[in-house]
Amino acid sequence: MAPLLLSLTFLSFLLLPPPSFAASSCASETFSKNRLYTTCNDLPHLSSSLHFSYDNSTGTLSLAFVSAPPSSSGWVAWALNPTGSGMIGSQALIAFKQSNGAMVVKTFNVSGYEAIQESPIAYKTTDLSAEFGSDGKIRMFAKVVVGQGASSLNQVWQVGGSVTNGVPDKHDFKSDNLASVGKLDLVKGVSTTDSSAATSSDNKRNVHGILNGVSWGILIPLGAIIARYVKVFEVADPAWFYMHVSCQLTGYAIGVAGWATGINLGKESKGITYTTHRSIGIAIFALATLQIFALFLRPNKDHKFRLFWNVYHHSVGYSVIVLGAINIFRGLTILQTGDKWRTAYIAVICVLVGIAVVLEALTWLIVLKRRRSVQKTYSNGHASVQQPFGV
């Protein structure tokens, strides 16, 4: 029951929804130079708002985009995408503070995932300006000619934490950052988003984390603990072996499923690469697969190659456990889940280590007791005692 309770505890922490922070109502926003707009929308992500007026006779969209960058040296962006619903192809207006302290708005044609460069965009723009408020928000103003009779536009908005040599650096990849796309309905005056795509991506990331956390983070270490310590109890022989194999095979199966979801996420997230996390994951999968082969290549205890098999089995097994723990922490960092998820996994590790320490002491006590018993019974010294670390 203990492993099951540990797994359920870990799962419960991972399944808790991340904290949400409601944006302030856009209706209370006021602007300098008596700027007024007919419509305002509180955008559903990144605590942003869009204020706009559309003049159909000239095809001009006058707008104010309001959002808070992660830092005072950060940037905010609002864009229209005439060819799709995502970042690629978007015609972006990006506001940030220059090295001299002055605010600037630049245009960027986002044609790929590589570093962007200032460039003309598909829409004619005028009256570009921005202000950095005392509340930490950037207010970006613009007039964009979208054409007469425009009704619905694909919009994208974003925030980033830094600018290098006048070029915005990459933004975070939190759920809000990835979900900040939607439709701007100029007729109804509303902004809508397709939350299903973002929710689906979040669910896949959570499933990936849960599967790998339970497999490499709980079941595989637990199987190693069983093999190292439970075997010392004579009453558990040969049950400990089947418990060990069952635990490792179950952990491997769940881990392979988690690894596969990670590979699939990588394919779906073009331009978003976590090289170290991915490389460690592949290494874990390869080493764990070697361990499966070890089960079929296991020689008898008295075989001359048994010592070499033991070295191979132990070294690969402990490598999987260490790499698994490292990659779980890297995954939690990538997911940006918050301290409580990290604390939950640290608690799981502490419980497993605590169990191992107690069993280590108990194992030595049992072995020393057996040794003393053998020495009393067989004074000729020919008896052999099994050490606690044998296989």
From TrEMBL:
Domain of life of the organism encoding this protein: Eukaryota
CDD domains: Cyt_b561_FRRS1_like, DOMON_CIL1_like
Transmembrane segments: 209-227, 239-260, 280-297, 309-332, 344-368
Cross-referenced SMART domains: B561
InterPro entries: AIR12_DOMON (IPR045265), Cyt_b561/ferric_Rdtase_TM (IPR006593), DOMON_domain (IPR005018), UCP037471 (IPR017214)
Cellular-component GO terms for this entry: membrane
Topology of the protein relative to the lipid bilayer: Multi-pass membrane protein
Subcellular localization(s) per the UniProt record: Membrane
Matching Pfam families: Cytochrom_B561, DUF568
UniProt KW Iron keyword: yes
Residue ranges constituting the DOMON domain according to the UniProt record: 46-160
Cofactor(s) needed: heme b
N-terminal signal peptide: 1-22
Role played: May act as a catecholamine-responsive trans-membrane electron transporter.
PANTHER family membership: CYTOCHROME B561 AND DOMON DOMAIN-CONTAINING PROTEIN (PTHR23130)
Name assigned to this protein: Cytochrome b561 and DOMON domain-containing protein
Phylogenetic placement of the source organism: Eukaryota, Viridiplantae, Streptophyta, Embryophyta, Tracheophyta
